[in-house]
Design a protein that fits this description.
The complex is a heterodimer of chains A (189) and B (727). In chain A, 54% of the residues lie in helices and 0% in strands. Chain A has 189 residues and is an all-alpha fold. The chains are: A mainly alpha (189), B mainly alpha (727). At the A-B interface, helix 1, helix 4, helix 6, helix 7 and helix 8 of A face helix 7, helix 8, helix 12, helix 13 and helix 14 of B.
């Protein structure tokens, strides 16, 4: 691949445009922002990884309660440390871009909410999800009783096949009714 | 409720069929874990839904599959066929996998379809470019919408509910702009171009006129283009194209367009709440799964969003346990509660009738002409608007307090307050108009002008009230709280919140006034647009400078239907007023304006119809006759019936599909479990061999530590050997 330290090669730019939902400008901007995050020693390396802590300093992610999950989902690192290569970063931006489809967005949303990576949202996942939404400190968290009531409500509504968990198709079923999911599931640099 | 019980019946039926599925609520551990079995990942339905999961996050599962090749290679190939077909149709970017996996997928596809023609590729890239360009255009257009930035700021700080108010306000501004265009085209334009009647004197500011007239709607303003009397029949005098007819057509167009636009908004909102509503109740899941706004960047906004979500959830849970508590009430409590509600409703009625009587007194008082000091006369002239506006300002808060005693749920409280307030607002306006009609019709003056004048005063005063409320009440209060936070007055006045329902009520009310008044005061849409734009800025100032974010989240979606419905009531009220007025024209001749010389709307249109060719005449006559009404009603009934039955059929289909989903998933669960038990038996014999091969692989990888080759991504083994490589 013809990536250099300062700018992307024409070939890989075209390739990224083909494989992601991003426009040329967006890819270039992403590259600029990514190289800013990179450590000096790795600037030339197309496969260099930015550790999760560095990625989370981006203002776009800083106040997002799901930031760590986002990094973990899009990271291809085999250590599961949430570090991102430039291509992972592009994947992330592509999924959160304006033009990504509802399928892509709901798919990644599901994986972000699936905290234990087992392919379904069980009550443990839902509890973590709700804690992320309400703020995860002692005084912002819901009480145990409220949490129990809430989770049983969610499962009663979305768990269509009554197996005690929400799977991807059930999740997408809920999401497809939401008019503004596509507009809110968005991160633009 | 009924639906849910029906569902349960189905499940019960299923349960009796399915012996493995023992209980509904505590799901037994076996069935809970079935999706973690290996074969589950190979099910066609699962693979369709996650074509790319083998790519990264689920590499372990994928690896497990590959490391156990004895699990049936042939059947796997067959199973993969379905999703592969689907995947090869999808554009690469729509695959949910990482870029490297997409590259591989692309290479795989290139092998399959190597020669896409030049034409095809050009067409594809063209379609992408076109879509991009279209997106850019729409984005640019949406950026051009006024106040986009303001709305964004407000939504970030005060939530969607408050933003809904400002969007509603902007919508009303658009509506009034549209009215302005119609008024200019139908009424102001022809009058300006063709002039007015020959006997009308030219407009001049002088004589007894004073600046005060602009507030009172008298003198100069009374003669000017603001009011009905100005628009006498001009030189445009064809049978079917004359100024009176155009005037009438303009007013009708305004009302009709408003009806269509508002009706459309109401039905859209209704459809929306219906979809999100109790019918398929996905309310909580929706709040959880779509709750977070990923566009939020500001930490303060994030904190706000957290608290919104928390309060919303708490509100929901509270309401749910409230309804539970409600179901458990004893008879004695219930009787006491109903008695209390009865008494409170009597109180509300008493308040309403008191308010109406007050308005009546004010109207009577302001009718009496007398010589006073100008300030006093101004006050007396404005007595009726003052009374109406102040009653409308105070009573909703009283209703709000009252409804808190009634032990309704929070949403119900808001709604009951809203219904009472809108009844108060529209009824007080109606009473005002009725007494005006009664009082003015007896005089042989140009009563349309008097009527227009009163409505003009109502608008002006309502605006002044908004203005004073913001700058003489809210802002000083805020200043006081900022400078002396410890003082008694500051603590008494408390924090200021932006009460969306009441503000929307104000908007609905003022818009109703515009619609009612547009016949008598044709420039009212122009005045209205200006007033609404200024109101927008005043409210923006109030909310950004003085208000704090509400702790209780306001439900935008459920109440916006109510708002638009009230707006619809406003349109109907305006139409009724106009109809009543036209009916009156037959009894009491108008002395001024377009229908001045003993003409009525009916006369003018009859002249027009008579001038048409005979075929058109007879067609119009038929359309207006009873003979046409019957087929029309019949046709409407048939169309409605067909829609209703189609809706019912869809409903049934949905129920059936849900049943099928439940049945097929229980089948799946059963088969997976059977398979898993079979596998377990096999596994115990094969485990020894597999462990041996894995260890062999580990050794190989550790010798060759190429860190970023794709093959390594999917190996579990490389993790195991990492510590050894680093040391």
């Amino acid at each position: 691949m013809g990536t250099t330290a300062s700018q992307l090669g024409k070939d890989s730019l075209a390739e990224y445009q083909e494989l992601t939902f991003l426009t040329k400008q967006e890819i270039l901007l992403a590259h600029k922002r990514f190289t800013e995050l990179l450590h000096k020693d790795h600037k030339g390396d197309p496969h260099a990884r930015v550790p999760m802590d560095r990625v989370l300093t981006l203002p776009e992610l800083k106040s997002n309660p799901f930031r760590k999950r986002i990094c973990h989902v899009f990271s291809t690192s085999e250590q599961k440390d949430g570090s991102l290569t430039f291509e992972d970063f592009l994947d992330l931006l592509s999924a959160f871009s304006d033009s990504a489809t509802l399928e892509i967005k709901s798919h990644y949303a599901f994986r972000i909410f699936d905290f234990d990576d087992d392919g379904t949202l069980d009550s443990g996942d839902l509890e973590k999800l709700v804690n992320c939404l309400t703020g995860d400190t002692d005084d912002t968290r819901l009480t145990t009783e409220e949490m129990r009531q809430l989770i049983s409500n969610i499962l009663e509504e979305s768990d269509i096949d009554k197996d005690g968990t929400v799977n991807l198709s059930e999740f997408q079923h809920v999401i497809s009714r939401s008019p503004d999911f596509v507009s809110s599931f968005k991160i633009v640099l | 409720m009924e639906e849910r019980s029906a569902n349960n019946v189905n499940f019960v039926r299923l349960l009796s069929d399915e012996s493995t599925y023992s209980d509904m609520d505590p799901i037994n551990m076996d069935s809970c874990e079935y999706y973690q079995t290996e074969i589950f990942d190979q099910l066609p339905s699962i693979q369709v839904f996650r074509p790319g999961w083998n790519g990264q996050g689920f590499s372990d599962a994928c690896e497990a599959d590959q490391s156990a090749p004895d699990m049936g290679e042939s059947s796997q190939g067959q199973l993969l066929k379905g999703p592969k077909d689907k995947a090869s149709v999808l554009p690469l970017r729509k695959l949910a996998m990482c870029i490297q996996a997409k590259r591989e997928a692309r290479d795989g596809r290139k092998l399959q379809t190597r020669d896409i023609g030049f034409w095809e590729s050009w067409r594809q890239s063209q379609s992408i470019n076109r879509r991009r360009a279209w997106e850019q255009v729409t984005e640019a257009l949406s950026g051009l919408l006024p106040w986009q930035q303001t709305l964004h700021t407000i939504a970030g700080r005060f939530g969607i509910g408050v933003k809904a108010y400002f969007v509603f306000l902007r919508y009303l501004i658009y509506l009034n702009l549209l009215h302005c265009v119609i008024v200019c085209g139908f009424i102001l334009g022809p009058t300006g171009f063709y002039g007015r009647g020959s006997n009308s004197e030219p407009l001049r500011f002088g004589g007894n006129d004073s600046i005060l007239d602009f507030f009172l709607g008298k003198g100069y303003l009374n003669r000017s283009a603001v009011f009905f009397a100005f628009y006498t029949r001009g030189s445009l005098n064809l049978p079917c194209l004359n100024t009176p007819l155009l005037y009438f057509a303009g007013i009708l167009t305004i009302l009709f367009l408003s009806l269509i636009v508002v009706l459309r908004r109401t039905t859209v909102g209704y459809k929306h709440t219906w979809m999100l509503g109790n019918r398929y109740s996905v309310n909580v899941s929706y709040k959880i799964f779509c709750g977070w706004d990923f566009t939020i960047q500001d930490p303060a906004a994030a904190v706000l969003k957290h608290s919104f979500i928390r309060n919303d959830l708490k509100l929901f849970l509270e309401e749910q346990s409230f309804s539970l508590r409600e179901a458990q009430r004893t008879l004695g409590q219930r009787v006491r509660l109903y008695l209390l509600r009865f008494i409170l409703n009597i109180l509300v009625l008493a308040l309403l009738s008191g308010a109406f009587y007050l308005i009546y007194l004010a109207i009577i008082r302001s009718m009496v002409e007398g010589e006073h000091y100008w300030l006093v006369s101004l006050f007396i002239q404005y007595l009726a608007p003052i009374t109406i506006t102040s009653v409308n300002l105070v009573l909703p808060y009283v209703f709000c307090k009252i409804s808190s005693f009634e032990d309704y749920s929070f949403t119900m409280q808001v709604n009951s307050t809203l219904v009472r307030s809108i009844f108060l607002k529209l009824a007080s306006l109606g009473i005002y108009l009725f007494f005006l009609f009664k009082a003015e019709l007896t005089k042989n003056d140009c009563w349309e002008n008097v009527f227009g004048r009163e409505i003009y005063k109502l608008c002006i005063f309502n605006f002044l009230a908004t203005f004073c409320n913001a700058f003489l009440l809210n802002y000083p209060r805020k200043l006081l709280q900022d400078t002396y936070p410890e003082s008694l007055l500051a603590r008494l006045s408390g924090k200021q919140h932006f009460l969306v329902p009441f503000n929307v009520l104000d908007l609905v009310y003022i818009q109703t006034v515009y619609w009612v008044g547009v016949y008598y005061c044709p420039v009212l849409p122009l005045i209205g647009t200006v007033i609404l734009v200024v109101t927008f800025n005043i409210k923006k100032f109030t909310i950004l400078k003085c208000c704090e974010a509400e702790q209780r989240f306001f439900r935008a979606s459920s109440s916006s239907v109510l708002f638009h419905f009230m707006l619809l009531l406003g349109v109907f009220m305006a139409a009724t007023t106009l109809g009543f007025n036209l009916y009156q024209q037959d009894v009491v001749m108008s002395t001024c304006g377009p229908f001045g010389n003993g003409e009525t709307v009916f006369n003018v249109t009859r002249v027009c119809v008579d001038s048409l060719p005979s075929l058109a005449q007879s067609t119009l006559r038929y359309l207006a006759s009873e003979a046409f009404a019957l087929p029309l009603i019949l046709a409407e009934i048939i169309i409605l019936t067909s829609y209703v039955s189609r809706g019912q059929a869809n409903q049934k289909a949905i129920e059936r599909l849900k049943d099928i989903l439940v049945i097929s998933s229980s089948d799946k669960r059963f088969l997976v479990k059977q398979h898993a038990t079979m596998l377990r038996r096999h596994k115990s014999t094969r485990r020894v061999r597999r462990v041996a091969t894995e260890e062999g692989a580990t050794m190989r990888h550790c010798k060759d530590p190429a860190p970023y080759t794709q093959t390594d991504y999917n190996t579990v083994d490389s993790q195991a050997c990492l510590p050894t490589t680093s040391t």
